[in-house]
Design goal:
237 residues; alpha+beta; 5 helices; elongated
Amino acid sequence: MRAQVRIGSSRELTLQSAVLVYSDGSGSFATLHEITKEEGRAPYLRPGQALTTTFLQSLAEGLGVRTPVEILPENVLARTAEVMMWWVQAARRVMFFGGGSAEAEQLNGRVYPHPPLVFKIQGRELFVRALTEDQRPSGRTPLMTAPYWNCGSDGRVCLGSSRVPDEVSAELIDQWQAGFFKSAFTHPGGGVRLTKHPGGFTGLWSSLADSREPFPVEYLTDARQTLSQFVEAGEEN
């Protein structure tokens, strides 16, 4: 791989510090190390200190990496360099089910009412929660568990082979939503109660197949999280 750096003029640059990134494949953190120079020896790193998200944002801006200016639609609730959050009104949509069970086959490809939802993209991951009222939520609005397979207790969506955009921007919100609703719901997320319906998950969606009635929000379970807590979840400074 070849890389070129253009600094715009003849300048002498010296190594001042180094950022080391550690990762186990699922999470990462970074440390900043000052450089020590001694005559006759190669520069070496001094002990590091953990970096904050704020520092990394400043570093990225200093290197010319900035979140582009966007015109945000009314349904966007929050936008930072790392997070995009929006809500969608209750609606009727086709759902697809997989997993190889007879129950899933009977549910597949039919039209269902859905509750109002809140979506969040953080990094390259998609999260979803449900609302009990079909109106724009505030920071104090309590959220409910989204009643879908493929979703974990924190609202994280297992995208699997879902087709989602390579970028995160307000213009691509519809494509992120489509990637969620057009994928097949195949398995429980584990460790989360998806619905209060006496028939469980399949009982809920069986009762709603082809229904023109609103989604029965009384069957939603409490996520024990407000909108503000949802947007801040996973943001470590």
